Amino acid sequence: MEQKKYWKGLEELHNTTAHQEVVKNEFREDLPFEESDSFLGATTPRRDFLKYLGFTTAAATIAASCDIPVKKAIPYVNKPQDITPGVPNYYASAYTVDGEYVPLVVKTREGRPIKVEGNEMSSITGGSTTARVQGSVLALYDVARLRYPGINNGPDKTKLEERIKELTFAELDKQVAAAIAGKPVVLLSSTLLSPTTKKLIGEFLAKYPGSRHVTYDAVSYSGMLLANEASYGKRALPTYHFENAKVIVSLGADFLGTWLNPSEYSRQYGATRKINAKNPEMSKHFHFESMMSLTGANADERFTHRPSEAGVVAQALLAALGGGVSAPVIADARLKEGIAKAAKAIQANPGKTLVVSGSNDQNVQTLVNAINNLAGANGATIDWAVTANYRQGIDADMVQLVNDMNAGSVGALLVYGVNPAYDYFDAEKFKAGIKKVGVAVSFNDRYDETTELCKYIVPDHHYLESWGDAEGRTGYFAFVQPTIAPLFKTRAFQSSLLTWSGNATAWEDYLKNEWIAKLGSQEAWDKTLQDGVIEPAAGAALAGASFTGDVASASARIAAPKTSGFELALYEKVAIGNGKEANNPWLQEMPDPITRSTWDNYACVSNKVAKTFKTELGDDYEINAEKQVLKITAKGKTVELPLLIVPGIHPETIAIAVGYGRGKKQYIGKAAGEVGKNAYPFVSFNGTTFDYFAPEAKVEATGSTYEIGLTQTHNSYEGRPIVKETTLEEFIKNPKEVNHDREHLAQYGADFRNDATLYTGGTKFEYPGIKWGMSIDLNTCFGCGACVVACTAENNVSVVGKEQVIKAHEMHWLRIDRYFSGDENNPEVVFQPMLCQHCDNAPCENVCPVAATNHSSEGINQMAYNRCIGTRYCANNCPYKVRRFNWRDWNGADSFEGNLLDTADMNDALTRMVLNPDVVVRSRGTMEKCSFCVQRLQDAKLTAKKAGRPMKDGEARTACQQACATDAIVFGNINDKESRIYKVRNEEQQDRLYYVLEETHVLPSINYLAKIRNKDAAPVAAAHGAEHKKEEAHH
Amino acid sequence: MNKRSPGSDPGMSKAQNTMHLKYESTLREPLIDGVKDYHQVTEDIISPIEAKPGKLWYIGLFISVLLLLFGVFSVTWEVYWGTGVWNLNKTIGWGWDITNFVWWVGIGHAGTLISAILLLFRQGWRTGVNRAAEAMTIFAVMCAGQFPIWHMGRVWMAFFVMPYPNTRGPLWVNFNSPLLWDVFAISTYFTVSLLFWYSGLLPDFATVRDRAKTKLRKYLYGVASFGWTGSTKHWQRHESLSLVLAGLSTPLVLSVHTIVSFDFATSVIPGWHTTIFPPYFVAGAIFSGFAMVQTLLIITRKILGLEDYITLGHVEAMNKVIVLTGSIVGVAYLTELFMAWYSGVQYEFDTFYKFRAAGPLGWSYWIMMTCNVISPQVFWFRKMRRNIMVTFIMSIIVNIGMWFERFVIICTSLYRDYLPSSWSYYRPSWPEVGFYLGTFGLFFTCYFLFAKYFPVIAVAEIKSILKTSGQNFKEKMDVYEEQDAEKFAHDQAHH
């Protein structure tokens, strides 16, 4: 049936063309848009105004917030065995550079080593590290490392790529083999701890008759080795046991900073400085030195002498102990008294004394051996059964080698891990000699001053890419295993030797076979690699040795000291050491513990010297980075360096750090190249050993100035109760005296933290779960800076460079404040690590307009970097000044392109591999600060949660805590009554415990434990007492 | 005509000489000089807008724009390279930036005080200066606002300070932060001041429109005057609006600088943590604001020939305010010193006595003391208060002093606070100075444009204080009084 058709109008019925048009048009009427003829004449209806406004605001907002560059990461296509993205792997390894012995555990993420920690299975270091060890992971990614083997094209070319013509290893092996065939070879290396490498060297040298191995230490200890040989028949270093000593006398040995193996000694020494509140006792540390060293700064009694007086001081001490030498004349009354005091203390503590000396003079060391012998140290604090291998170089061997080289009697010179063209005292002679050598081969991993002169360059791996072993003490082994495949075309030094001695075994197999033979099985070897160390069973008694030294003739050979005029002393900086690892931005930017300077060396002078050059400590000195440049002449050599006043240095001593003044930036690297001046030319050879001082020095003003980047310019804590200290005597007498200034807080109630508030009725958050807290013991913090570098590594703290340090823009989350007190020429020193105090009543939190910094339910003052707009109000309002602002784009995380400020290649794709992926890189314009290593805390909590158990104390550790050699930092959950932190605060150390700036009622989560000095006179405490009495009288 | 020459002593008027006008107060001087009728007023004030600007104006504007461009360059430099191009550091997070912010905000206060509080107190003399003073407020707040914006490390995220609904949680701003209070205080202040100023401009714009001879001028001023016709209804609403806005502005005079002072007062830093700050800051703001008004009006009246409208009476009145508020800040300074000693807190004591009044930045404290406390005391002398040159120099000295006050508060408190290890020093870098100069450029560019295109005196308002009819009556009476009594009686009788 056909549908009936209804029509609405005649047009539709007739279906006119006009009607068809209309039907095609969807909208029969115009939409109510207001039309206008021109754009300018367009009217915006009132009712649409808000719409337009809303749209434009939203559009602007979106446009503004989306413009952050996206960085792409490429995931694994196939999951590698043993690597789970996001989960770190740990491998045991060891740091053995230049004879230091620090067993390590290396953290790798996605195949990249990013952090090293001390291996706690080692009884020698017990998990402690040093700043340099912490920084060594960055050296792996150093852009200045050599990337391929090759042949040196010579000095005509400037670019590094052109200077070294790349060769394949096969080609290179062929050429080297031909070049050294039949020649007597000299292998010149730094101290090697690896027994297997030494065995291999022996095999290699045997193939080339007339060959020899010369060990050369840039900073030598051969005086000690020779003295020990003469005194005890062993050319070795004994094992020191500072932990057994009640009296420690150091004659210029910086054993906490640079002497032999500081991580080991710091730990031992720290054990003697811990205060048990119930039975307070601690070692007494006398220190005699010319410059102000880190160790001297921590001494209880410190005395200064001229550098040339080092022998006389030992002589005088021996004489005072009745050692059969006549007492020399000592003009300085204070020094004389100090020696008498030290002698008295030694005599009062037989068998509980340790005397160490930093002198490289055989005669001085013989006298020191005699002192230790008299004091009964052998077998008590010194072990001769287990000797240490930390340094093995004999200076005379090196001098002989350089003479041989110049005589043309060295057929081939293989240079491994040393750089005499820079650090040998007569570098010119070495350079002249190397030209007369048949062929020179360098295994150094960078194009340093010596490698520049070698024909063949076969760069070695970094230790984190290597296989190896190390024997720190006799019978104590640590193992090195690769944590990453070699980044470049480098080859293990040992592989080269194996190849060149015709042995086809791979080095790792050679090492493995050697150890499997010793250990008995593959399983034992695997276990060993897992543990990282092998040690003899504990409990063996220390062994003494019979002293056979010729004291009389040693004493007779002590040179008469100078009595007036300037003298020059050379020293190693804690961070830079002998300069081998100087191209490390983390270490260059780590402030020197004493001077608080970065990126430079300088002439450390006393107040007295400074005054003669019209420089004085004071406002002008503090606020101006420009320091006067002095011209220093000694031994016919001249150097121009800016002066830096170091209170406590001997009044007529100028001290200069070695390790600076390296070659061109393009070869050495941007961090170390052309920084500071080389002080090694001032070293001299006295016929037996190198002397690291110059008794005749001339100092002149140059009239010019030079800027030094100091991170702290004011030296005194101005008597403010931010640092508390007392003497042991006073502390035993009245332990409460330390916190006498807290007594007036009692007026606010029994518990100042809770009661001193205006808001008594308010609700207070009680932290029901975890509440993190930290305790820092000022008595066992020595200011070494390992924690500072550990923090930098863990938290991707940016390096800013010298210019920005001068502008006080450095980024360190954790700094170590150093304060002097007392006599301006013989000050006492205190170190105070200062980091975010995670205040429960944080002044930074309530001033942030956007709530970018806020408090966690676990008591952490946290930063939401993405939210931060950079008003810096929080930093202004921080009483501790621990907040750090990203003043510039240090790391490429900025919204703008092309404004990166990177003075030290920290943003190379290679260097950035060191970044910790757990911690975000902060962009320019945001504030940052210590987070209590929140990523580690989360990790510990999640691990416990996954295992279905409560988190145990010690599972969550901050990077600074872990790096500390002395456990000066205790961290944990204060709600856990079993935790160390709870016990320290509530049971063990209430008397010494205080909070910095407690009276501001910001409620910090970090407490400090007052420093105790073991000294006789107690001027500080007495003053406190007197003041206290006065106050009482006043009331 | 009894026209007095400007600057003549009002006490020595004709009235005194002839004893004719005994009913006229000899103490109160007229608010404007000269006998002006309504037309004359309009002529005097509007004609500069219609005339071609002078050479000086072009030079001034050119220099201002140059400064402004340099400021733009300095800020661009800073935004691109980072706040690190400024010499602020880990210890001193605020320097010239916030110093300048507080300084400019303070300057703005005089305008609001004149327009709002004096309106409520029915101070007729305000009509001569309120327009320019309010303009100064607007421009000063515009300049002030630049600093908190561009001092941010990530200025492109500045909108985070706005409490807008968002998908971040929602994540709100921190209402505890004084900096956030600043955001509200300054934006409210700017909005209200702008509305007040603009609503006052409406009748005057209409006058300019009605006199306009070119089409463009007529169009532009027509738009600007929002269709003002001058009907009674318009006037009535205008008056009500003025009163409402005056009522709103009055608390702002006190609150804005109080809140700015909270940035410091609520902190824990010695030298900032002071309860005296709110009144001290408000007094200081009015002090510097009046000084700036003096600086501007002394130039304006000279160049535009408005000596009849901005009289010595105005200058003197404002100098009285200056000596009063200057003395208040002086007392505040001394109180701070006293409290620092009396509190017995070592940090406070050191900050005030060792690092503020002495120490490497001590010079700034003594500049402040000299400029703000000692030098304004000259205004105790009437002769000095009425001396244009002295006033002009003093107005500049006061603003230098007030700039240093803010510098002293911010920098000498920060550079040496609790932990001596962090003590530092501060010198500005060129982009910081450039930014400051740039705001001068912005301020004077705006002011020059204002002086040329806007009626610098509130024409409609000043007409309300004209005493032309009274004056005319007196003059008529003069004629009679000079005749003898009989003649007068005779004349009267004939009527």
TrEMBL record, chain A:
Residue ranges annotated for the 4Fe-4S ferredoxin-type domain, each copy included: 772-802, 827-858, 859-888
InterPro entries per record: 4Fe4S_Fe-S-bd, TAT_var_transloc_signal_dom
Pfam families: Fer4_11 (PF13247)
Protein name: 4Fe-4S dicluster domain-containing protein
Stored PANTHER family: GLUTAMATE SYNTHASE [NADPH] SMALL CHAIN (PTHR42783), GLUTAMATE SYNTHASE [NADPH] SMALL CHAIN-RELATED (PTHR42783:SF3)
Superkingdom: Bacteria
